[in-house]
TrEMBL record:
<comment type="function">
    <text>Catalyzes the circularization of gamma-N-acetyl-alpha,gamma-diaminobutyric acid (ADABA) to ectoine (1,4,5,6-tetrahydro-2-methyl-4-pyrimidine carboxylic acid), which is an excellent osmoprotectant.</text>
</comment>
<dbReference type="InterPro" id="IPR010462">
    <property type="entry name" value="Ectoine_synth"/>
</dbReference>
<dbReference type="InterPro" id="IPR011051">
    <property type="entry name" value="RmlC_Cupin_sf"/>
</dbReference>
<dbReference type="GO" id="GO:0033990">
    <property type="term" value="F:ectoine synthase activity"/>
</dbReference>
<dbReference type="GO" id="GO:0019491">
    <property type="term" value="P:ectoine biosynthetic process"/>
</dbReference>
<comment type="similarity">
    <text>Belongs to the ectoine synthase family.</text>
</comment>
<dbReference type="Pfam" id="PF06339">
    <property type="entry name" value="Ectoine_synth"/>
</dbReference>
<dbReference type="InterPro" id="IPR014710">
    <property type="entry name" value="RmlC-like_jellyroll"/>
</dbReference>
<keyword id="KW-0456">Lyase</keyword>
<protein>
    <recommendedName>
        <fullName>L-ectoine synthase</fullName>
        <ecNumber>4.2.1.108</ecNumber>
    </recommendedName>
</protein>
<comment type="pathway">
    <text>Amine and polyamine biosynthesis; ectoine biosynthesis; L-ectoine from L-aspartate 4-semialdehyde: step 3/3.</text>
</comment>
């Protein structure tokens, strides 16, 4: 059984920050369970364009409000507590935190190593190339 809490990630390579966001990676590739699980905060007013070409990501909102936009179609989806969205087709998307800090539980497969930051194209390197050290933000 694996047991971990948020406090145990703070100040470690599993606590990753970028402009307008903060991610505490509670479960990572080294835990060998096939996915990673993150507690992520997107600060109010933040706008991030992302695309995970090498990962599938599911996001469960449990705080704040915002929206996710499918860049290809322009379709907008409201984010609020109790909503989930899944980027199952490596969708290029925009995440906006509009009312309070957006709080998300994020699940990635394949799992992240733990220390990754977004590459310039808004994604993460393939798992074979990823490492516990941060890449370019």
């Amino acid at each position: 059984m694996l047991m971990r809490d948020i406090d145990s990630t703070v100040g470690t390579p599993r606590h990753v920050r970028g402009e307008g966001w903060d991610s505490k990676r509670l479960v990572v590739a080294a835990d060998d369970v096939g996915f990673s699980l993150h507690d992520t905060t997107v600060k109010e007013g933040t706008h991030m364009e992302l695309q995970y070409q090498h990962h599938v990501e599911a996001n469960y909102c449990f705080g704040g409000e915002g929206e996710v936009v499918d860049v290809a179609s322009g379709e907008k989806f409201e984010l609020r507590p109790g909503r989930v969205y899944v980027l199952d087709r490596h969708d290029r998307h925009i995440v906006r935190a509009t009312k309070g800090d957006l709080r998300l539980v994020c699940v990635f497969t394949p799992a992240l190593a733990g220390g990754e930051k977004h590459t310039p194209d808004g994604g993460y390197a393939p798992i074979a190339k990823a490492s516990g050290s941060a890449t370019t933000d």
